[in-house]
Write a structure and sequence with these properties.
178 residues, single chain, 5 helices, two-stranded antiparallel ribbon, 46% helix, four-stranded antiparallel sheet, alpha+beta
Length: 178
């Protein structure tokens, strides 16, 4: 009984500390959101050109998520259909996960799926995508590159990549599958 009473007292004493930490976090979030809001409002009011809210705030969101990990991604309302298609798996592509490499500032193959066109063509993790069907992918974002990798099932294209492990540029023929 005495041990239970002591443990309850310790828990009660710890509660204000836990609540305080949560309040500090909530305060910091609210303060930073207010700062973000104020900056955008001032830019909108005083900037030389008219701001495109979707673009400016979308870039802010993408930058925030980019500081986390390569898997947390923002899909604005305009890309909801694309996200739905990706989640249901009802489209044809090459069967590889791609991502933007901030250090290289290029889109790379992150994971070619086994027994899928990308792996069968010889694409490997880390390959830098240079061109798809003679269209340059240098300086393009993941969505742009992804759009070019997708297409009708059975259609083929030539992908040009640079393999960092060898430094060689290579061309491969890839045929899309569902």
């Amino acid at each position: 009984m005495k041990k239970m009473l002591i443990s309850m007292l310790v828990m009660l004493m710890a509660l204000p500390t836990i609540a305080q930490k949560n309040n500090d976090h909530d305060f910091k979030v609210a303060k930073n959101m207010d700062v973000f809001n104020a900056i955008y409002k001032n830019l909108d009011l005083m900037y030389v050109d008219t701001l495109d809210a979707d673009e400016v705030i979308g870039n802010g969101i993408k930058a925030m998520l980019g500081s986390l990990d390569p898997y947390t991604t923002y899909y604005p309302e305009s890309e909801q259909q694309e996200l739905k298609r990706m989640l249901t798996g009802k489209y044809a592509g090459v069967g590889a996960l791609i991502r933007y490499n901030n250090q290289l500032q290029k889109v790379v193959i992150d994971e070619p799926y086994e027994n899928m066109p990308a792996a069968e063509a010889g694409l490997k993790k880390g390959d830098i995508i240079l061109t798809i069907a003679d269209t340059s992918m240098v300086g393009k974002d993941v969505a742009y590159v992804s759009d070019h990798l997708r297409g009708e099932p059975g259609t083929s294209f030539i992908i040009k990549i640079k393999r960092p492990s060898t430094g060689k540029e290579m061309k491969m023929k890839v045929t899309r599958r569902t």
